[in-house]
């Protein structure tokens, strides 16, 4: 294509106000973004206008007018075509989708009027804690599977799926092999910035999800068929769809890579219908017009119980964001118990106060805290089955400590378990609330704990710590105190795990690093912190959640729904690990 002449560029840019008036939208001027295409469109060109084509009759310049820049596609937009000789408006082509080059070759478009921009994501700090207790969740008897799909992805859609992927593994103990991710071109790629694709913005760490195929209809149906061959009557399937969606005047559709091709709600539901009978289908959809998928799925699902949650009603669009899509972010944070940066939920989510988060509660939370434009809607069959539908038992443990008397204490949010080492099971009548049972300890949970073996144990939370007198069964006077200034060389906040090694040393863990602490010297040993990778064999290099040294002189490290056993004498992880926590620590989580 021929580049747009500079004089025509200047002419069009100088007449921005008239360009806005040329738009047919009723939106105010400050709600429209204008983008100038850098190349001339020849007469006879078949212009791809979203999911349709439009033949350009005369040699033209193109300005793309986005009438709702904060929403996902499809939503109202226009292709404004101008005469290349005099800059006169030739025609206005309405659409629900942008030009393909706007997605794949963004550098070809110059932003000539862009008053609407996504606000940068901000951590949520001044909110009500909505911690996920997860202590009484019924364990799904069969296998659990998940399919995460995004077609014409932007960064926010990939980030949503990464958050959900981590939650399924770290919070609920899903097997990674049972999670299938379909994205864009079959990689972590997405349209637009930021680039390069390095770190997930939730916590700044590398992306963890493995992409199994492209965001196309054929790959989705291939994976659905693969899962279908494995499903049995007691199994669970989660389907999450992301990116953009359209509506053809009759039904909703899901956009697929690479050219907005429509995967209609009827075709989608027809494939669901071909699955064998199984126990539970949970669906969460983020794309525009997603509400139009609810009834087709409910009508065709062979599952005993089906719940479908969507970001918007059938004829509406869903909101987007700088790093995440609001509805998907809130739904996922709801089932996780916190946001990706570990900030608290915006309000209480556990409305039944039973320590578990159902599909209905996750949707209702996302609906209660929704942003403008979103119109969350859900449906289930049988009616209200979403109230008793769960992803599974939460698998994460916040802290653990060997009390030195044959008992091990595990802490999880506002509750704790007492584990009997000799009997290899949780003692009767546990878990219990921390409040009323641990004199002086934070009632809503701790981050890490360690028993020094001298009658004192230390508990950490945020930037503070307390010293606990084991014999007196209470926190010593004068505590809590700040970590800063009292633990020479230790991180000053958010310690994730601690374990006494029984030799005068304590190991502290945070993120991808660890520190060795000398009890006698009361300080960190020289040369620390060090990376976990390369120093702890095959231990999770991206961090652990809790650790303890047991009476058999083995150290146990926990993460998500798994744990690893470490042989102190040989300084190596025992063969066959990691394994399931739920299956081997009886009565725990």
Query: How far apart are the first and last residues' alpha carbons, in Å?
Result: 62 Å
Shape: elongated
CATH architecture of the largest domain: 3-Layer(aba) Sandwich
Strand content: 25-35%
Cα-based radius of gyration, to the nearest Å:
27 Å
Summarize the amount of helix as a percent range: 10-25%
Whole-number total of structural domains? 3
Can you describe this structure?
By secondary structure, the protein is of the alpha+beta class. The protein folds into three domains: 6-113, no CATH class; 144-388, 3-Layer(aba) Sandwich (Rossmann fold), CATH 3.40.50.1460; 399-584, Hemopexin-like domain (Hemopexin, 4 Propeller), CATH 2.110.10. Helix content is 15%, strand content 30%. β20 (415-420) and β21 form a beta hairpin. α6 (265-273) packs parallel to α7 (294-300) and α8 crosses α9 (359-368). It is elongated and about 90 Å long. One of its GO terms (molecular function) is metalloendopeptidase activity. Keywords: Repeat.
Short descriptors:
589 residues, alpha+beta, Rossmann fold, Hemopexin, 3 domains, seven-stranded mixed beta sheet, five-stranded antiparallel beta sheet, 10 helices, elongated, Hemopexin-like_dom
Map the helices and strands.
Elements: H1 6-14, H2 16-21, E1 33-37, E2 46-49, E3 52-55, E4 60-66, E5 77-83, E6 89-95, H3 100-104, E7 109-113, E8 144-150, H4 155-171, E9 179-183, E10 211-213, H5 217-228, E11 236-242, E12 245-247, E13 252-256, E14 261-264, H6 265-273, E15 278-285, H7 294-300, E16 303-310, H8 326-336, H9 359-368, E17 377-381, E18 399-402, E19 407-412, E20 415-420, E21 425-426, E22 432-433, E23 448-451, E24 456-461, E25 464-469, E26 474-475, E27 481-482, E28 497-500, E29 505-510, E30 513-518, E31 523-524, E32 530-531, E33 546-549, E34 554-559, E35 562-567, E36 572-573, E37 579-580, H10 581-584
């Amino acid at each position: 294509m021929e580049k747009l002449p500079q004089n025509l560029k200047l002419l069009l840019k100088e007449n921005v106000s008239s360009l806005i008036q040329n738009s047919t939208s009723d939106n105010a001027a400050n709600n429209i973004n204008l983008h100038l295409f850098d190349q001339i469109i020849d007469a006879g060109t078949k212009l791809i206008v979203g999911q349709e084509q439009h033949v350009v009759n005369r040699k033209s310049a193109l300005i793309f007018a986005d009438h709702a820049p904060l929403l996902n596609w499809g939503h109202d937009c226009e292709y404004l075509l101008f005469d290349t000789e005099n800059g006169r408006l030739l025609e206005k082509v309405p659409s629900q989708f942008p030009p393909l080059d706007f997605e794949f070759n963004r550098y070809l478009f110059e932003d000539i009027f862009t008053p609407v921009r996504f606000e940068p994501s901000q951590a949520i700090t001044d909110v009500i804690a909505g911690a996920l207790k997860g202590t009484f969740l019924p364990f799904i008897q069969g296998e659990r599977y998940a399919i995460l799909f995004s077609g014409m992805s932007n960064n926010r859609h990939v980030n949503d799926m990464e958050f959900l992927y981590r939650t399924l593994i770290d919070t609920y103990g899903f097997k990674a092999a049972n999670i299938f991710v379909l994205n864009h071109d079959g990689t972590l790629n997405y349209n637009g910035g930021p680039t390069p694709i390095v770190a997930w913005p939730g916590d700044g760490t590398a992306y963890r999800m493995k992409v199994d195929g492209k965001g196309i209809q054929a790959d989705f149906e291939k994976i659905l068929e693969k899962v279908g061959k494995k499903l049995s009557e007691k199994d669970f399937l989660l389907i999450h769809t992301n990116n953009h969606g359209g509506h053809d005047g009759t039904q909703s559709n899901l956009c697929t890579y690479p050219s907005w091709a429509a995967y209609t709600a009827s075709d989608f539901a027809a494939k669901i219908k071909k699955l064998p009978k199984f126990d539970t289908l949970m669906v969460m959809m983020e794309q525009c017009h997603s509400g139009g998928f609810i009834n087709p799925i409910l009508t065709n699902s062979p599952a005993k119980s089906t719940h479908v949650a969507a970001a918007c009603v059938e004829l509406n669009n869903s909101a987007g964001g700088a790093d995440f899509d609001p509805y998907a972010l809130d739904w996922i944070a709801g089932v996780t118990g916190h946001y990706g940066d570990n900030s608290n939920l915006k309000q209480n989510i556990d409305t039944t106060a039973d320590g578990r988060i159902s599909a209905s509660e996750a949707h209702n939370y996302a609906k209660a805290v929704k942003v403008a434009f979103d119109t969350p809607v859900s449906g289930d069959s049988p009616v209200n089955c979403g109230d008793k539908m769960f992803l599974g038992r939460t698998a994460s443990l916040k802290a653990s400590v060997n009390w030195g008397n044959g008992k091990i204490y595990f802490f999880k949010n506002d509750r704790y378990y007492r584990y009997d080492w000799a009997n290899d099971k949780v003692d009767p009548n546990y878990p219990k609330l921390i409040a009323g049972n641990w004199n002086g300890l934070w009632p809503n949970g701790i981050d890490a704990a360690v028993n020094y073996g001298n009658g004192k144990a230390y508990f950490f939370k945020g930037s503070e710590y307390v010293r606990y007198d084991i014999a007196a069964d209470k926190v010593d006077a004068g505590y809590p105190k700040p970590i800063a200034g009292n633990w020479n060389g230790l991180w000053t906040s958010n310690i994730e795990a601690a374990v006494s090694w029984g030799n005068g040393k304590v190991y502290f863990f945070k993120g991808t690093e660890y520190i060795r602490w000398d009890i006698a010297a009361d300080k960190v040993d020289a040369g620390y912190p060090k990376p976990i990778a390369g120093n702890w064999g095959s231990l999770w290099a991206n961090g652990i959640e809790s650790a303890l040294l047991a009476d058999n002189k083995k150290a146990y490290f926990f993460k998500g729904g798994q744990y690893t056993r470490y042989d102190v004498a040989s300084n190596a992880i025992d063969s066959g690990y990691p394994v399931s926590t739920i299956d081997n620590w009886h009565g725990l989580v």
